[in-house]
Amino acid sequence: DIDECAIGSHNCSAAETCYNIQGSFRCLSFECPSNYRKVSDMRCERINCFNYLECQNTPVRITYYQLNFQTNIVVPAHIFRIGPSPAYAGDSIALTITRGNEEGFFSTRRLNAYTGIVYLQRQVSEPKDFLLDVEMKLWRQGTYTTFLAKIYIFITAHAY
């Protein structure tokens, strides 16, 4: 594998981030929606919300992740773990894949009241890119708070 990102042989624009994958690269763009501000390269936080329902239903934070796996990954494969940090006694989470899983390759499971995983439940037989939106709703002291993980998953051909 040649790291096109490191040697500069990619064609990503200045507004995009180069991400190296096995045998290639991807140009990724991380934009914050309106009413969010970028607080790091990979994270947006909500600026404000105007009513109780909006506060509960829109994510307080959106975080971008990139994962790279080969087609020969053994399933089921735990690929992503999520939970509040710090976690407190009485916390409870609910995980939902809200977008990007139309073909049913992925699923979620709670490991305990405050930790969940996203796992690959079906073999991906050929190279394929996914963008999953995984929503974590945190129940803490009588209030729900929503967090959104946007997970880029790149399945590449395995090296022989």
Automatic annotation (TrEMBL):
Q: Which Gene3D superfamilies match?
A: Laminin
Protein name as catalogued: FBLN2 protein
Q: Where is the EGF-like calcium-binding domain?
A: 1-45
By its UniProt entry, which Pfam families does this protein fall under?
EGF_CA (PF07645), Fibulin_C (PF22914)
Q: Give the Gene Ontology MF terms in alphabetical order.
A: calcium ion binding
The listed locations are: Secreted
Q: Which UniProt keywords apply?
A: Calcium, Disulfide bond, EGF-like domain, Glycoprotein, Repeat, Secreted
* CC per GO annotation: extracellular region
Q: Which InterPro entries match?
A: EGF-like_Ca-bd_dom, EGF_Ca-bd_CS, Fibulin_C, NOTCH1_EGF-like
